Amino acid sequence: MTAKPKKEFGTLLDALRSSFERSLRTAEGMVEPVAMLWTDPAGEWRGLIAKFRLSMPQLYTLGCYDPAERTGPAIWLKCVVDRSIPEIAPPREITPVLYLPNVARQDLRAAGGCSMLVQPLVELQYRGRVWHQQNGRDWTVEAFLVSDEGLGLDVAKDTKTKEAMLRSLPLLAETIVESLRGRRLEAEDFDKLAVSDPVRDLLRWMSNPEGVREGMDGGRWQAFHSLCQSDFGLNVEILRPLDAASRLVAGSGRWDDVWQRFCEAPQLYPGIADLLREPGAGQGKLTFDLSRNPIANEESEAALRRELLSLTGLPHQEACDRVLALEQEHAPRRQWPWAKLGESPLALGLEPLARLAKTARLPLAGGSVKEMVEAFASEGWRCDAAALDALANTKPAAEAAAISSAVRALYAPWLESGAQRFQALVSQNSVDLRDLVRGVSSEKETCLLFVDGLRFDVGGRLQEELENRDLKVRMTFRATPLPTVTATAKPTATPAFKMIKGGESPSEFVPVVAATSQPCTYQRLREQIARQGVEVIDAENAGTPTGAQGGGWTEAGKLDELGHKLGCGLASQIPAEIDRIAERVKTLFRAGWEKVRIVTDHGWLLLPGGFPKIDLPDYLVETKWARCALVRGDSRPAVPTYSWYWNPYIQIVSPPGITCFKNVEYAHGGVSLQECIVPELMVERAVPAIVANITTVQWRGMRCRVSVNSNDPRVRVDLRVNWRRPDTTIAASVKEIGDAGEVSLVVEDDSHEGTSAMVVVLDPSGNVLDRMPTTVGESQ
């Protein structure tokens, strides 16, 4: 059996944010949701909203108009979603979350039957997402705490416990989840949160003294006052938070416990960072621990920024050594609380920079094309991966400029030396590279998944992501033909490569269909693939295998498109693209494919600030791109020339090293290991596929007995109006078939009698394995 995933959330708020992110995740080809609707029929979550809003500014609440608290009526929330109120709406790349107290998901689905106060929001359930459980029901506090989709805690089911749980919700939000594991939580455990954590209450008082005092009744304030005097030697009736801050800076005794608690989740106490910046906080003491001084951290960030910017003028080896020394100096700051507060972006960015420096010190070497390619495919690509990691994180402009400058200083010389060495070897013996170019064959029960511009290092990350999703992956390499552009290279990445040939005068590096001598356009290439007995599948479909002898062919990903559009901005988009491609692979397996083989056409070069430019007169060439050009007639440009893959009598030119004919940050078409050597991934299921089929469906009144033949007792059975949508379930509960291979489902709502429905069988991940139509209440 598959082990349940370990819950590693810091607090309840962290878990909610993660759940929201999963709910908003969008598959490739789908429109991004405009909003997420958080329905709460009983208003149970209301006590959490004020605290949640501090760390989630895109959270808005349905209620009386109060823009300062991001609360307003339905029509105001619609304006927020449509960005009609710029001063209150979140940035366009951030999806607003609309909390709807006392509104159920069923209310929204009732459309015209729901309250007039809510009706303007009904249409958002179609343009956006509704946060709900897998069974389609609204998330209650109790459900989220106990569900494996939420925190997976063991909570008693009695009324007293539920009341205590809801009463302590604001305090529960700040409690480290791991401290609640390993025992059954009852009313007493939740009540203790209100009085038994003086360290947390002290931090809350230091962060917001007026708010904490107003929020405590007389008895609780007296208990807090007494604990502060006895445990911390602090009279909160007389002394100020600044007095507490000076003791926190000095440390020792229980104040070290207070500091450790602050470090665990500093974002929960936003006022303390400002408090520790105050002159009276005691930072000037000689014994002061610098990790407790946000000003010292800011000064270290400023010094690091200067050091990174100064790398530009250093020799390459010296720049690499300097970055490794800076890593030794600044790495501890990643453990300081200021990093969690987003105040140490350069210290965080230094980690991938140090990896880049370490790998860039070793040049790509080899005595032949084959040796260089093997060295690159083995370890060399990790330098490219480190450069992408360094560029990937979103940072303030000043920090981004420093990181980009450092990446260029470390990475450009390594790229240049590797490209020059590889080009020299290819020029000596171009056959070696050509021999590594091979077409892609088709195979029954295997779907070929083409990803445009899947560079080798990105392929390595994709392999890791697929293996994390319980898939078995084997990655090999192949070479792409020259020039390394889609028009020339894509046909070799298809089963139709033998049906393509080179024309006499290619336009834009496009070969022709051998049978017709027509340019091999996108549509004609698909037609040739289909003629090989391959099922061609549109990008938005999964394509249930039809048994075609040549298997299937489909496409996914926008890496190359994003690279040309965003330049170095591509780095931050790669994790999302990998996620979409991995999800596409899982979709293909769910559709029934036995294997998925991921292929691509070319790699690319990426360098912040752009590549060095080299001039090439237009009159010497027919076509000129950033990293390649087609020679005109008998012209002899003063740049290296190579044979076009599809017709060796036609010459192309490619700039030396990493130079370009245009000013760009992202380019391909030239001769370098990053452009020419690409991954190929064969993906298989790591465990035997779960199979199931419905054998019988029998009704007795509003109870349905379903028999299922399956190789896994964890298979579950549901009854839905729409078999694709779990939110249309009409069964009282979804049940596992167990060893008996059958379940009994109950439809509690008599209004569904006579309704057409679908019995569906689900694997443990919720994927539909089989379905059968039925009519509620009728004999089969």
Give the count of helical stretches.
28
Any idea how many domains? 5
The main sheet comes to: 6 strands, mixed
* Oligomer state of the chains in this structure: single chain
SS elements, strand count:
26
**Strand percentage:** 15-25%
How far apart the termini lie comes to 34 Å
The gyration radius over C-alpha positions equals 31 Å
- Output the structural class: alpha/beta
**Which segments are poorly predicted (pLDDT under 50) over 5 or more consecutive residues?**
1-7
Helix content: 25-40%
Q: Can you give the mean pLDDT?
A: 89
Shape: globular
Side-by-side strand order of the widest sheet: 7-19-12-6-11-10
Description of the molecule:
- With 780 residues, the chain is α/β, with parallel strands linked by helices.
Brief digest:
The protein has 780 residues and is an alpha/beta fold. It has five domains: 12-190, no CATH class; 197-292, no CATH class; 307-431, no CATH class; 437-606 and 666-685; 692-775, Immunoglobulin-like.
